[in-house]
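Lecture notes, continued. The same structure-token format from the folding unit now serves as the input rather than the output. Read the line below as a description of shape only.
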């Protein structure tokens, strides 16, 4: 009895310790006390519950779940449903968490809150929206703002991933989280400018709310703003401002945010900007997308986009096996998705295996008829690249849902014209026109023969036929157009022009339907036109011309003044007594008396011979012999200095001195033998 009383007393002390630690938030010490209680009473339900709560508060979710699963007889689903579901949710076992919540006998407010979070992670946005609406309607506590934030996040996700037009929730955007979610919803609608304004407002609110706390540093504020700045950069990227977006993305990466999901998205967006350029930077960035826990932070579409870009990067970096492996994995995950098969086809084309690429695309088109149109467009592009234009046309014409589209008609007609297959081009026009006639006839309101697309196709067909000499066929189209709109003068003129080459009489009959010249005359105010800004210069010019002509008419009797011819300049050595050389206009080499240049007579002998040597008369140029020469001698190999005031002619213009020719030759011979300078 004494022992049991002692145990009860120690248990009471332990429980008071647990209570005190719980109130102080010291769950580690509380856990120690709970474990001591469980040693006394191992199946104590309250102690087990407290242990689970302490483990959850300490972040030991696996151990907490293990305790729950070990004591299932004591900890029934009614007692521990919320704690079990929460542990499963935090361990990313989302499907298990959903089953635990749904199997609970009583749906408490806590379970409903967790249920909304679970549905959001499972991307069941419609059910999630209904769950949060119910919570907001039936709850009144301090967490109302958080529930509204979650509700706006669901609406933003619907707009972004499901392209659902978001409804106006009537929420007052008093917090930066609400502003951010509203901006995300606007991005999903394509309203980028409005979204940017919302993000700027969110940034301002974030700075205001965080700056009020004295413990928050500037680094903490920048870290919190990282997700807002990341969304701003994404808008810039969508707007084509890639340089600005890239700069902002890199600034966020330098901050090293702890959110691996944010880093993965930014890295992926940088890779999309780089494309097939700067692949080394892309290979560095792709490592951020492989961080642990990324798969639990992003939506399925975000993860899928990252995997697509990994496959494309492998292709750009010539990693063919890696590209095939990634694209095959993507195709197995999403068999109906277009991108994996398109990446595989692109890789085959890079390897010059166009036939295999076309066969791969054809197999996919056969297996997935719903996506056949886009695949066949790619096949046609490959055929054009191979030079098989006719085969490309056949593939395009097999896409029934696009045959009547003006863009497809234009493309086919252009391609057939390039191949000079005019009959096939005309057939394309005929099929498209027939489709519109049948479509209009099937409408409940009846046929609309004046449909703009229908009439434009007929007009284009008529113009094409006229251009290629098919006048009779063009006439039937023009008559159809004129019948639909008898007041169309342009069509009537074309019809008359066509008939004039085939049936002139018919052209004359039709020409009577043309409006008279009186009805066609434009009501133009001539005076106003002449006084307009554009006609002012023309009028002045015309006035000058008329004035000149009048002067000429008046002065017809006057004698025209002859212009004085300037006398030609004569050469300086011109002698009037000597008859000019009749061959003076011919080049020297073409004159009859030209005998060629005489050897040995080099002009002026300037710059010839050894360094520093001069021609005869060098003594006259020797500065050392003159009284005015400077005291210093020139450097070896340099020309003698001449003062600015000297009248001595520079050596390059010095005429040879009148020395005998024999003396010159001797000097030249000496110079040829010399090797040194001064």
């Amino acid at each position: 009895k004494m022992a049991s009383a002692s145990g009860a007393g120690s248990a009471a002390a332990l429980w008071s310790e647990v209570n005190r630690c719980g109130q102080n938030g010291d769950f580690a010490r509380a856990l120690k006390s709970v474990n001591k209680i469980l040693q006394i009473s191992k199946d104590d339900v309250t102690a087990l519950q407290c242990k689970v709560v302490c483990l959850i508060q300490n972040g030991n979710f696996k151990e907490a779940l293990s305790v729950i699963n070990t004591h299932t007889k004591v900890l029934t689903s009614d007692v521990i449903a919320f704690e079990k579901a929460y542990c499963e949710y935090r361990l990313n076992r989302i499907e298990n968490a959903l089953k635990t919540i749904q199997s609970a006998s009583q749906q408490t407010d806590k379970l409903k809150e967790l249920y909304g979070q679970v549905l959001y992670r499972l991307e069941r946005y419609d059910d999630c929206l209904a769950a949060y609406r119910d919570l907001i309607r039936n709850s009144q506590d301090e967490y109302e703002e958080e529930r509204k934030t979650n509700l706006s996040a669901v609406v933003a996700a619907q707009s972004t991933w499901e392209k659902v037009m978001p409804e106006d929730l009537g929420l007052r955007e008093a917090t930066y989280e609400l502003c951010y979610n509203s901006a995300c919803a606007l991005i999903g609608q394509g309203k980028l400018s409005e979204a940017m304004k919302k993000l700027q407002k969110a940034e301002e609110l974030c700075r205001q709310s965080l700056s009020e706390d004295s413990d928050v540093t500037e680094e903490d504020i920048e870290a919190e703003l990282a997700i807002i700045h990341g969304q701003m950069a994404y808008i810039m990227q969508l707007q084509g401002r890639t340089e600005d977006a890239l700069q902002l993305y890199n600034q966020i990466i330098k901050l090293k945010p702890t959110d691996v999901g944010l880093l993965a998205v930014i890295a992926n967006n940088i890779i999309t900007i780089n494309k097939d350029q700067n692949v080394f930077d892309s290979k560095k960035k792709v490592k951020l997308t492989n961080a642990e826990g990324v798969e639990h932070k992003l939506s399925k579409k975000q993860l899928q986009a990252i995997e697509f870009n990994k496959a494309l990067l492998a292709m750009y970096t010539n990693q063919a096996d890696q590209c095939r492996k990634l694209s095959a994995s993507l195709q197995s995950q999403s068999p109906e998705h277009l991108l994996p098969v398109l990446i595989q086809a692109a890789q085959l084309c890079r390897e010059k295996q166009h036939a295999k690429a076309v066969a791969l695309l054809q197999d996919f088109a056969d297996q997935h008829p719903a996506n056949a149109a886009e695949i066949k467009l790619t096949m046609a592009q490959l055929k054009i690249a191979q030079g098989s234009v006719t085969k490309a046309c056949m593939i395009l014409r097999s896409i029934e849902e696009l045959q009547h589209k003006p863009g497809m008609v234009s493309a086919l007609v252009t391609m057939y014209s390039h191949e000079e297959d005019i009959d096939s081009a005309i057939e394309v026009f005929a099929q498209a026109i027939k489709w519109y006639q049948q479509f209009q006839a099937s409408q409940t309101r009846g046929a609309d023969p004046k449909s703009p697309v229908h009439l434009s196709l007929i007009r284009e067909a008529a113009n094409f036929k006229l251009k290629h000499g098919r006048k009779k066929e063009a006439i039937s189209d023009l008559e159809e157009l004129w019948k639909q709109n008898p007041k169309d003068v342009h069509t009537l003129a074309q019809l008359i022009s066509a008939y004039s080459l085939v049936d002139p009489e018919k052209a004359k009959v039709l020409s009577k339907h043309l409006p008279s010249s009186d009805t066609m005359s434009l009501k133009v105010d001539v005076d106003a036109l002449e006084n307009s800004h554009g006609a002012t210069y023309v009028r002045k010019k015309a006035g000058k011309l008329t004035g000149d002509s009048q002067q000429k008419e008046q002065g017809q009797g006057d004698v025209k003044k002859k212009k004085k011819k300037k006398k030609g300049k004569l050469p300086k050595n011109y002698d009037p007594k000597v008859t000019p050389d009749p061959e003076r206009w011919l080049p020297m080499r073409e004159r009859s008396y030209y005998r060629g240049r005489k050897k040995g007579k080099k002009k002026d002998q300037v710059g010839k011979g050894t360094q520093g040597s001069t021609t005869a008369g060098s003594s006259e140029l020797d500065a050392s012999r003159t009284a005015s020469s400077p005291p210093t001698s020139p450097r070896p190999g340099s020309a003698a200095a001449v003062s600015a005031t000297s009248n001595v002619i520079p050596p390059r213009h010095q005429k040879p001195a009148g020395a005998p020719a024999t003396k010159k030759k001797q000097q030249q011979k000496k110079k040829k033998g010399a090797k040194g300078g001064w």
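Point for the exam: Residues 1-6, 539-545, 613-678 have pLDDT under 50 and may be disordered.
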